[in-house]
């Protein structure tokens, strides 16, 4: 189980959180101008990164607030926790074969 | 004139009053009690708004705690910081009066004041094995060093949402659950505490 450092409550068990999938996916400014393929890409297609990903979590059984997490999908190490709406911090991104 | 309804215990069907004993035996590790109805108001607002902070302080008699998990107490009222900009104000037995008091103090201020007392049921668990009992179903660390007196935390207890409040230095906790989970929470705690010896105490 992950130990996630909630920015408001401190380190808590993963059990208390819900996963919000990939972060920083921007809604298209002009959805009516998109092709079906572009719309499908926005709605459904996500990176399947082996390495550091940026994702959203919500402390649903604690303070009920959302925040962003940078996590390595290989080691499960949480590299950074930062607020919603903020730019991701500069991280050293390991590459895996 | 609206009829004033009596507060009905969420655990009335268990007949706890008839089974309660005055004190826990020395051999019993845990005492369980249902706390009587307690007024509660969910208060939301921005602490960096001077009008909100001052209004709340005037109504409560103490400043709202900023840090999540902190509790501020003045007289019979306590403010438990549930999240950033969110508090549970508890105390006394008159929910509408508590709500009115906060509303009056926060008039014209951007805030939310919602009476929620009847939504919750509170179980008191005390005794040398209280922390160990809770630990069986909750990922929080109940050690006195990690969970000192005057702190609260929201978490899960055997899959249900709980608000745990350690009011004093005693090894005792107040476990607040949604009313409809009260029966489950009580039975779970009673079962979890059985191996330590459990006394049912009067609320």
From TrEMBL, chain A:
Listed InterPro entries: SoxD (IPR006279), SoxD_sf (IPR038561)
Alphabetized GO MF terms: sarcosine oxidase activity
Domain of life: Bacteria
One Gene Ontology biological process: tetrahydrofolate metabolic process
Pfam families: SoxD
Protein name (record): Sarcosine oxidase subunit delta
Species of the source: Tistlia consotensis USBA 355
TrEMBL record, chain B:
Signal peptide feature range: none
Pfam family for this entry, one: SoxG
UniProt-recorded name of the protein: Sarcosine oxidase subunit gamma
Species whose genome carries this gene: Tistlia consotensis USBA 355
